[in-house]
Amino acid sequence: MRTDELDFELPAELIAQEPPAERTASRLLHYRRSDRSVSHGTFTDLPGLLRPGDLLVFNDARVLPARFTLRKSTGGRVEGLFLSAVGPRRWKVMLRNLGPVSGPLLFADAPDISVNVIGFGEGLYEIDTSSDEPALELLNRVGRMPLPPYIRRDKEHDARDELDRERYQTVFAKTPGAVAAPTAALHFSQSLFDALAARGVERAFVTLHVGAGTFKPITADRLEAHAMHVEHYSIDSAAADALNRAKREGRRIIAVGTTSARVLESQPVSQPFLPNTAHTRIFIHPPYTWKHVDALITNFHLPRSTLIALVAAMVGLEEQRRLYQLAIAERYRFFSYGDAMFIE
After folding, report:
1. Sign of CA pseudo-dihedral 207, 148, 100, 89
2. What is the value of pTM for the model shown?
3. What is the CATH number of domain 3-63+168-343?
4. Domain residue spans of the chain
């Protein structure tokens, strides 16, 4: 399949720059594959669209405030993105505007802490900090949420930083380590969970730490040539049990977001779900035969991305194009802070 088949033109004003006032106030496009019908509503309509016994599967990864700013001795700014801790004081990071460096760098918001760049490769760096403070604690002091670049914010600080700390995070976020949010789940609130429970809808939680590669455009001419990024995931015993019960009883398994879908589809087709911690590089794109996921809740994704390829694998390429053009015509808000789609 050619990658340019996933291209589309999006008016810039449809790229959501802030979340809606309330999580559940997002719009919801409902698509039925059985008859190719489309309806429009709001996310609060979701309980009425689901069936008693449906199992919603969420990604409970917690987003780190992973973006930080360093200062050179000349005063120049270096933009950083934390990826992981690789040892005491040592981080794996992405750095931008590093250029030639003489001497240590300083955290812009903690100038008493110095940083030495000690290695790099494949566009990634390792840095050594002068602080014994654990990485997550230090990031909570000096970091900002790792919003994707299409959400515009002022450099270093923005009046919306606290809003982003709250809203670029699900209400149930638990396991720290992600550098991008599982955005389909940003629409859920506790009151919506209560309404879903009253409807008889069940839920389970898996973990996939979303990496920076999730937003990387596909640069290969054909999808098959794309080198998929690797992400760490885990399924605990409670989730495995819930998934196996749903399978046995013939109830629908609905992935909330492409990350949950990737975790589920990484499991063997002919075996029960088992508690598991592993890595996946599964790339779901047309043509693909779904093994476990019966329906999907997802946002509207970037052109030429692995995420929109996954949507096309569920509805078909022509239908994906039609739905996105319809969403544009109906003025839906796109990408991480944007509106949602329920595909069944």
Report:
1. negative
2. 0.95
3. 3.40.1780.10
4. 3-63+168-343, 67-143
Q: What is the pLDDT of residues 60-93, one digit of tens each?
A: 999 999 999 999 988 899 999 999 999 889 999 9
238 exposure class (CB count in 10 Å sphere: 0-12, 13-18, 19+): exposed
Tell me how far apart the alpha carbons of residues 341 and 327 are, in angstroms, rounded to a whole number: 10
Whole-number average pLDDT of the chain: 95
CB atoms within 10 A of CB 60: 21
Q: 1.10.760, 2.30.30, 3.30.43, 2.40.10: which CATH number matches 67-143?
A: 2.40.10
Q: Which residues are paired to 117 by β-bridges? A: 127
Side-chain half-sphere CA neighbours of 287 within 13 A: 1
Question: Cα(156)–Cα(67) distance, rounded to whole angstroms?
Answer: 9
Cα distances (angstroms) measured from residue 232 to each of 50, 153, 285, 296: 30, 29, 20, 21
CA distance linking residue 253 with residue 129, whole number of Å: 44
Pinpoint the alpha helices (H) of 168-233.
190-199
Q: Tell me: pLDDT of 315 over 80.
A: yes
* Phi and psi torsions of 112, nearest 5°: -80, -5
The answer to whether the CB of 50 falls within 8 A of the CB of 201 is yes
